Amino acid sequence: MRISVTNRGPEAAPLHVLPTLWYRNTWRWTEDAPIPQLRAAGWKGGHAIEVRHPELEPYYLYTNEAAALLFTENETNKQLLFNEPNPAAYTKDGINNYLVEGQKESVNPRQRGTKAAAHYALEVGAGSAEVLHLRFCNIAPQALGQAFLPDKGNPLGKGFKAVFQDRRQEADAFYNTITPAQLDAEDKMIMRQALAGMLWTKQYYYYDLDQWLEEHGANPLNMRKPKRRATNDGSTCSMPISSRCPTSGISWYAAWDLAFQYHQPGDGGPRFRQGAAQPDAPGDLPAPKCKLLYHEWNFDDVNPPVHAWATLFVYGIEKQRRGSGDLPG
User: DSSP characters for 100-147?
Assistant: First the structure.
């Protein structure tokens, strides 16, 4: 990973950069569920966060010596919000409290937890930039010497920069093949950023309604969508704004929004566009009379035929690009 920060102001300014790892809190859903762990590890050139999960192989986030590691648990501060006892000593707002409020005791001194950040305290000069390098991989500290032999075991050395440059050249070549030649430099960049945004927000969305109701102690007889209790959706989809459904952390359906995104990937590829239509497909989500779900407040609200329009629009794009559609006639 490479993080670039630029100060475009007339004066030097301090900046705190916090690349962060955290586990989604699933251990509170069921009793006796295993709790994954993040913990500090070291290597000769800096710091590392060791990532361990019961179902995954170990991974490591490598940083240089300039980063200080901060650890908390990914647990809500119930004492602050609800005046209830906290489930853990170090809650997920602890990193904020450490930096903003100066509460040094709000992060775990043992450097372990389910949420962790590498803290870079920078002083960025006027009109200048700072670049940070991090590597996330499955190579343990004791194996770095063999894995990165030309760089003498440094995962952030010259080899890091070479790989990054190769990937950038590959990305340039890809976008050059799909960008219309008549566009000027600014329009080309706008198109590239739009497509990159769609690729970046292509995420997995999982919603098992029956499981959600059980975990939250909800009575399905009191819900507005009892007929849809069988809803079980596991799909990969893309939204241009990740704060909107269904790729957001708050995770809610809004079929209207999703339909209007089907054609947005443009020349990113017809399979990419067609895949966007799958999350709300009747075959994936059983519904009376094959009706598409609307939103999580009420699955049975009326949907205008925007999905039919989006499907036809995507078909037209593919037909124009390939010279023929995927349907006979």
Answer: HS--GGGS-TT-EESEEEEEEEEEEPTT-EEEEE-EEES--GGGHHHH
Q: Please list, in sequence order, all residues whose beta carbon lies within 8 angstroms of the beta carbon of residue 145, skipping any fewer than 6 positions away.
A: 152, 153
Neighbour-count burial for 171-188, b at 16+ CB within 10 Å, e otherwise: eeeebeeebeeeeeeeee
- Whole-angstrom Cα distance, residue 114 to residue 72? 6
Closest CA to 239 of 192, 205, 190: 205
Predicted model pTM: 0.77
C-alpha span between 306 and 262 (Å, rounded): 10
Distance of CA 258 to the CA centre of its chain: 18
Single-letter residue type at 197: G
**Could you read off the pLDDT of 150-204 as tens digits, one per residue?**
999 999 999 998 998 999 999 999 999 889 899 999 999 999 988 887 777 777 7
Q: Extract the tokens encoding 294.
A: 């609307």
Q: What is the dihedral of CA 107, 215, 221, 286, to 10 degrees?
A: 110
Query: What is the torsion angle, in degrees rounded to the nearest 10, for the CA atoms of residue 305, residue 311, residue 316 and residue 322?
Result: 180
pLDDT at 249: 41
Burial degree of 85 (CB within 10 A; 0-12, 13-18, 19+): exposed
Polymer length in residues for the chain: 329
Could you read off the pLDDT of 104-139 as tens digits, one per residue? 999 999 999 999 999 999 999 999 999 999 999 999
H or E segment at 237?
A: strand 232-238
Domain ranges for the chain: 2-178, 193-322
**Model confidence over 223-244: pLDDT tens digits?**
555 556 667 776 666 665 555 4
Report how far residue 273's alpha carbon sits from residue 237's, in angstroms, rounded to the nearest whole number.
9
Can you read off the two tokens belonging to residue 77?
A: 């501060």
C-alpha distance from residue 47 to each of 16, 51, 74, 104, 166 (Å) = 17, 13, 21, 20, 26
